[in-house]
Amino acid sequence: GAAMGARGLWALLAALRAGWCLLPQAGYLHPDEFFQSPEVMAGDILNLQVYYPWEFLSSSPCRTVVFPLMTSGVTYWVIKSLQQLDVCSNCINSYTLLVSPRLLFTIFSFVLDYSVYRLAPLWDADPWKALVLLAGSYVTLVFYTRTFTNALEGLLFALLMVLVSSRKSDGTLAEPTSSPLIGIITTAGFFNRPTFLAFALMPLLYWAGLIVSSQKSIKTVINHFLKLVLCACFTAIVFITSDTFYFTSMGLDNLYSIKKSSLFSVIGQLNEKMIVTPFNFLSYNLNPHNLALHGSHPRVMHFTVNGIMLFGILHILAIGAGFKMLKKYIHQLIWVKSHYHGSPGLLVHSEGSPTLLLFYFVPLAFLSLFSHQEPRFLIPLILPLVLFSASQNRAVKWKHSIIIFNVLGAFLFGCLHQGGLIPCLFHLEQLMRSPESSNHPRHYTLLFAHTYMPPRSLLNIKKRDKHIEVIDMAGSEEETLCRTVEQRANNFICDDCHIFVIIPGTVRATITKCGVSFKNETLIFPHLSMEDPPQIPFLFSRNWRSQLGLYILQLDRDQ
Asked: Which residues form the signal peptide (predicted)?
């Protein structure tokens, strides 16, 4: 009965994951969820006006184009093809631009569920209870349904853990036979995010220990490692060639338009300038000055704040168990294999599963060496943490705390956090695509202030359309913001010019000091800006919605 209940609960949570993606989720977690994949592909494939981040410029290529092309690129190519085939007349709109890449990532997220189901028996955990713990986490519901490179990193980490943990039909560990796949996944993860090496370190050492201890012949051991290295090199060549083609051609549009006669010149450029994006990424991020531009944090931020923010009580339980095992097994943690003189797989069934804790804490420790520490960097660690927490029923007595924590996390990050910006872009796209605007072309100026960077692709503006201007004022000071608004207000260049200011309710009063008036106000609720948080007393007043809203203000030209 308990097993059937767990299966039903997992199915319900899986349906929630897919349904909430389609709804869609309004929360905006971080600009990278748009600007490291969908925004770039919308410009290259759909020919929309977008903002290309510096990592995708040919002058500073730091991100591989392979994964954006295989994810957002594929979904955008599908909806473009459907529209060209007249399957639907309006396949390309704000909703499909947002949801189609997210839906693909949501489908991919079930790789985590498959991995948990495969791995749980090896770590003395009930598969269905572990799956409920995974599917009920707001990290799975929110972060793994977004177009983050960190989500891909987590999926590749999960696949790597499955590959290094082979088992026989009787449940005992078997010699891994997936050396080529391990090489491919490790290299692909490195090109996706070079930090993947921190996650891959323990699985690779675990795999190496199994190979060495299970083989009598040194020739067989060398053969395994040779297969891994050869496949890793081949995968690296594929990524380097693809990136070099893309960045030397400066986008997919130019790449597609290359004529046969000029193909040899492009191949010549490949020989002259090979672009290895992970090395550029590392070169940039190993410079403390560059990291400081993105924000510097204490080295213990991941351990003391980010881990708790993402995983709550599960992170605290892992830390407590880690200290206990460190005290008991300090001499064994130097090398995983040293617990028993037999197979390192015996560690899997030892009290406390120290190997799982290594899979969790070793990447955490490596990521803590960098001064820039964001919570999303840790989302791949949900797999070993769930397996550890589900083994020996550690999480059972905390189930009420876990439920409350994940409901609050899902509501905060899936609904509230910058939650007005995406609906705002939907609203503006419909406004600019209205029949009135289509019959009489109008000029629109959209000025965003004190919001996250707006993804231009969701406005669905073709590159040839020059009558729409997007200005991102970010967190500009009051004086700079007022100066810009006043300049725009005093320089209406046509009768059909419309200027909209998009600003959170918490800084709405700033605009009133700018000496301009507005004829239309639209409040989008809810919207929580942690950079400009609401004042607590106002939340208990009549106008509490304005503190948790995003305003779209239209300037009055007849002021």
From this structure: 1-21
